[in-house]
Amino acid sequence: MKDIDPPYDLWPGIRSRIQTRRRWRAGGIITSVIAVAAIALIMIRRPQTVPITQISPSSVRVIVDSADASNDARVEQELLEELELRRGELRPETEAAVRASLQTIDSAITEIRTEMTRRPNDPALAQLLAEAYAHKVDLMKLLANAS
Amino acid sequence: MIALALLLILQPPIERRQALTPGAGVKIFVPAGRVHLIGWDKDTLLVRGTVSRGSTFYYGAYHAGVKISVDPDSGSATLDVYVPRSSIVSIKAVSADIEATGVSGWFYGVSSRIRLDGTVKNLEAESISGDVTIGVTAPWVRGRTGQGRLTIGGQVTDVNASTINGAVDLTTTGLERARVSTVNGNIRFAGDPGTQGLVDIDDYGGPVDLALAARMGGECDVTTVHGAIVSAIPSVRPVQDASGRGQSLALAIGHGTARITVRTFKGDVRVHGP
Q1: Same domain for B107 and B136?
Q2: Which of A19, A141, B143, B232 keeps 20 to 30 A from B118, CA to CA?
Q3: Residue of chain A minimizing CA distance to B142
């Protein structure tokens, strides 16, 4: 066996190969980190899809007792009396606003009542009617505080 | 400068102070002008400002309560009122604009614009024809207008919003209970009832815009007597009722027991997903 002397200087070649390998490894790590960060960002920013499904309508919940006509008449009478009493104290624009509001509520009540003759057992109508009366009471309270 | 000096002589600025016990009542009546209330951590009430010529400033105070008023009914003032946070304020105005931060109590105006924010215990705000804007953190809020716009935001557990012709805009979070009702106003509801809140929306003639919150879990029921329902959610479509005039729509969203119920007579309803 004949000994072969190694080349005069091996180190520059070894070093260059090691550096190349390191560069590849670093590049790989950076690429992986960027990829993971991008995926995480997409997952975070993607709007969550909330499941929404159609179901059959339940009967409308009625939360206010349906008002009766006598109660409505009493509230209306009190409201008109209050308006009359405070006529001198109220600014014309306030009185006009109250009368306009009263007219709005009254026309709503008339329409709802007409519809109720066609659909007497409709819980939505009963609820809307009760709400209309409640608005009249609210208006009376607003008016009572106005002077 | 001379004119300004004369003006100051004719309208001397007001400044009054009173130490108050916790929970003291503060009653204020200012017909016109502007009142700015600020809740602070001190135990003293401080009122500063000016009244217009021809108006008289009245002030009565002791440790358990303060009463401030400007007379006559047409009187006008510009006041800044600092009150202890624990005080309960009761303020009434005709056209004076009212602003308050961190103040609990009752706020009333005939045509006043009312704007309230901060953290409060409870709040009631009413105006016949003025706009009311509320953006508070509170357990209980009631807002009521006739013709004015009613806007309620912030974080409120129990909300009651009512108008006659005014629009209602409700974007409150943390809702456990909400009642929104108007005769002819437009309603926009983008509040968050979470997974347990109960929301009732009634509108006779105005349109309703309902935006479901992403965190809502529960059911939503919409019924119209004559109005149309438009669903922006592809998987949910309105159903025509037997009479052929009204519509209904029901959906389940997420997981929970929250419930939104919408009823209109002739107002249209638009439903959006999160």
Answers
A1: no
A2: A141
A3: A138
Asked if B60 and B178 sit in the same domain, the reply is no
**pTM higher than 0.90:** no
Q: Please tell me the total count of domains within chain B.
A: 2
Name the domain boundary from B112, B132, B153. Answer: B112
Mark yes or no for CB contact A112/B265 under 8 Å. Answer: yes
Q: Which of B108, B216, B261 sits opposite A145 (nearest CB)?
A: B108
How open is the CA angle A95-A99-A103, to the nearest 5 degrees? 170
pLDDT of A64 over the 70 cut: no
Closest chain B C-alpha to A90 CA, distance in angstroms: 10
Residue B6: inside a domain, yes or no? no
Of B225, B264, B273, the CB nearest to A52: B273
List CB contacts (< 8 A) between A143 and chain B: 128
Backbone angles phi, psi at B186, to 5 degrees: -80, 145
Claim to verify: residue B149 and residue B263 sit in the same structural domain: yes
- Cβ distance of B219 and A58 shorter than 8 Å: yes
Separation CA B240–CA B253 (nearest Å): 22
User: Prior bond to B22 cis, omega within 30?
Assistant: no
Tokens at B244, concatenated: 């052929």
Kindly state whether residues B108 and B124 are assigned to the same domain.
no
pLDDT tens digit sequence for B237-255? 999 887 778 899 999 999 9
**Mind telling me how many Å the CA of B274 is from chain A's nearest CA?**
8
Residue B119, C-beta contacts closer than 8 angstroms, at least 6 positions apart: B102, B136, B137, B138
pLDDT in tens, B16-25: 999 999 999 9
So what's the pLDDT on residue B5? 57
Task: For B76-134, write each residue's pLDDT tens digit.
Answer: 999 999 999 999 999 999 999 999 999 999 999 999 999 999 999 999 999 999 999 99
Contact B263 A124 (CB under 8 A): yes
